[in-house]
Structure formats: C-alpha cells, structure tokens
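WARN retry 2 of 3 for item q-0093 after timeout on previous attempt; input resubmitted unchanged.
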Amino acid sequence: MGLKSFFSLPFAKAIVKKNKAWQKDPVKTQNEVLRSLISEAKDTAFGRDHQFSTISGYVDFKSRVPVRDYEGLKHYIDRIQKGESDVLWKGLPIYLSKTSGTTSGAKYIPITKESIKYHVSAARNAILTYIAESRNTNFVNGKMIFLQGSPKLDNSGPIPIGRLSGIVAHHVPAYLQKNRMPTFETNCIEDWEEKVDSICEETLKENMTLISGIPPWVQMYFEKLLEKSNKANIKDIFPNFSLFIYGGVNYEPYRNAMQQLIGKDIDTIELYPASEGFIAYQDSQSENGMLLLLNSGMFYEFIEADKFFDENPERLSIGDVELGKNYVLLISSNAGLWAYNIGDTVRFVSLKPHRLVVSGRIKHFTSAFGEHVIAEEVESAMAELGSEMNLEIVEFHLAPKVEVSNELPYHEWFIEFKQEDVDINLIGHKLDDKMRIKNPYYKDLIEGKILQPLKITPIRKEGFKEYMNSIGKLGGQNKLPRLANDRKLADQLNNYSI
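OK item q-0093 returned
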C-alpha cells in the first residue's frame, strides 16, 4: 500500500463526517447560504438594482429578483467582459467559462475565486466519499485520466476565457499531478480524433486505474485502445482499472456497450458539474441519485416543470420539494448568478438526504401533440430495450414528424446501432410499447388515432460522429440533444441515414 492509499481512507472519513453536518438541516443550510450571498453582493451593480440591502429572507428575494436565463443577464455579463468590476459579484471573475447554446451564440459564465474552489472540492469529495464507503484505495496510486477540453485559455481580454473542464485542469491539486493523464501538450490538441489518438499512445502501457469523462467520448477512447492494442477488452489493457467517473449525459444508454468494452464490472461515480457550479455527485454505491450540494456557495430554487411556462409559476426552496416531481432548477451563486435557469430539469429520489437525478432539459422535449415526452423517458426506454435485446446503441435522437401525406403523424427515432442486420420493425414495436408505458399521454394519442406508432430511421455507422464533426462539436463537453420539439436536427440527420 502506497502513502496516498494509506492516508486517503482517514481523510475520506473526515470529509464524509463534515458533510453529514450540513445534511442534517438542509433548510437552515440553504438559508445561511442565501444570507451570505445577499450580504456579499449587496454593493454590486446587480445588488443595487435589486435592492439587496432591503432583503431579509427568501420571500423578499423572490419579490426582488425575477427568474432569468442567460439572455436576461447578458447585459450585465457584457459589462463584465469589458472589464467592469462589481457587476454581478464583487470584483472581477477570474475566468469566463465559454459554453454554447443561446440565441445570441456562445454563453460566458463567470467563475470567481469564491466559486472555483467548490468546483475542485466537489470533484475531490465525490472520490473521497466513494473511498469512505467502499474502502477501495487501490486506484489512488495508479494513473488517472480525465478526458476533457483543452486547458488553453483566451487571454486577449481582461478576463481569461476557456471551457469549464479546461479551466478546472489548472486547479488539479498538487498531490494528483504525478498521477493525472494525459500530458498538458496532448490535452491542448484541439482536433478531438487527433487528441484521442495521442491519449491512446500515452496511456496504452500505463497502469490506468481511474478513467473519467463524458460516456460517448470515453467509449470512443476505449474503441481506439482496442483497435491499437488488438486486445479483446479494456481489462486486458488496464487490469487494475476499477473506477469510472462520468457526467454530462445519462449513462444508462451506454452502460451495456461500455461493460462489453471493459469486460468486467467496475464501480462508477456520477457527477453533476456545470459551468454555473458543481451541483451534485453520487455519494452512495447502493442508493439512487446524486447528493445535492447545499453548502457549496449556491442557493437553489425549483419550479414544477409542467408549470414552468405558466404566467407566474410558484418558486420553491429546498424545504418545499417533493419526491417524484420534475422541477426546473434555478441557481443563485457566489459566481454572480441570480435566480438563474440553467435549463435542466431534476427529480428528487430522496429527501433525507436530498438526492436527485437529472431528468432532462426544459428546452429538450417532444410535445408537438401535447405528450411532453422528456429525456428521462426516452433514455430509460432505450436502456431497457438495449438490455433486453442485447443491442448496442451508439446514439439516438427523437423528433416529431408532423407533416405526413396520407397517414398519421408520428415520432421519428434516429438510431445508430453497433450491430448490423438488426430487426428494425421488432425494435420499433418494442420501443413503442415501452414509451406507451412510460408516458400515458403518448399512449392516449396512439390509442386515440392521433399518432401512429413510432418509426425508426437507422443512422449509418459513425453517422452521429460525422454529424458532430461537421458542426465542429466533436468531443470535449459537446453533447447531442436526445430529443427535440422541432425538425432542425432531424432534417440534418437524414443526410446520415442508411
């Protein structure tokens, strides 16, 4: 046993004990966070505009601060980008995290000296919590790889700009530097396929024990490794590989394919990081969901997803949430975000402590006919189907087909299968049955002859990869939307069908 292994277990136990304290009184914890945030930001431009000095509690906060998305805060962030201090948070942010996906192009999410430490400590604590529960410390002395974006920063303006994973790479604790891979030079490669090739060359002969990344990109890495090594499974290349850490997308649709690639069962840890803050991590191998981090500089609010587009939906704090409901997640943080809609929907699976799952995106749903199909439903249906039929599903996307000549409209599923010669009709029938069970509105529309059963359009091998490459979003933190309420992506995917 190495020194790191020896000391990691008592350190892990101490961190878990410390975290148990704030879990005992979640409402008090969150109220203290809100008071602190308001106090720290009362003299900022945003604080003055919203009368922070008169806010005495959550009721006041709701009346002063409306719900906003990025567009609603953009005029403040524009001022920050020009170098103005004390706008959303005291001083200047130390970074701007660049993400995509708004009507005005890229988003630039502030990261402050107060918020960056929580990005780092949450990732650390997720691993330590696992160690405390499993007592597995063997992986600590091996090599660890974090498949992430380039750590190169754009320093042309007053605030460095980069991708979240690249920014966090600059803050990896010193005690992990000797273990981490790939090299800085390889991490800086922008072309994803070239980068994966280089990572494979660097890691093939290393004692890899922990691997982390977004599942589809880790899957690509594994496939490249097997191709270069002529080995049957990843376990034959990395016999001591024992822990996979992932986030960004639901793992279940990838689980079967990943297990077959690895060739053995290994433990996994799910993370919920975002540019806006590190929100939750899996704190138990035996319980569902991820622990919501209530003491990490963020105050959370929740709006029931099916009421979100009402004229004045009710905003709830942590003491008001219920099990089983889908909520739109709002964040106020020590990075200067206030009642900010990050776009995710979550569902609580435990209230003691508060554990949640990410159920989808409020803008990523299919409801052209009032069915409101969400990501959680399509992903779980696909995962069940893959397990039952021993199918390897590379990727998929669902969109409505509204305008159809001489037949009823339907849901069109674009699916890339790993196997050849699959029975599309049988798969479609089984998938449709599962969707009727998961979504009663969809079932009613089928039985009421408003919709016909779903249809599958098979995508050619590596078709999704070709599409992502064509729009410059191959690899890194880029993710393909699993479902949509329009045909924008679907019409492009038709170019990659079989």
